[in-house]
Amino acid sequence: MDIDIRGPRFGAAVSTVVLAAVLVTGSGALLAWQALCFAAGAAFGVRRSPYGWLFRTAVRPRLGPPTELESPGPPRFAQGVGLAFALVGLAGYFWGPSWLALVATGCALAAAFLNAVFGYCLGCEMYLLLRRATAVRS
Predict the structure, then answer these.
(1) What is the pTM of this model?
(2) Are the CB atoms for 81 and 104 separated by under 8 Å?
């Protein structure tokens, strides 16, 4: 079932704020929360992630019907990519080096920002490139 394209962008906007707060505060616990959100989105789909639930219950009812839908596969893959960066960031925050935490969190922040502001999902683009690469091999 296709998803409302505004949902993942809303989730990216919330992730942008959370990840920026992680960089400002240096809070590994806040990054752990974001990692859990990414994990839920990767495992269960963006509709069932905490930010997807928030969009579905609090934001979407106040909007008109969606004008554009998308396949849930690419955003779900993107959540997995975000999770990978968040886990690397957590390793940096809890075990060092601290620059690793900052770089990994910054990369996740940059990707979330691009999606939230410009609608350009780096993880989704990676998904499509991988799909094309595997289709060529087959």
Answers:
(1) 0.94
(2) no
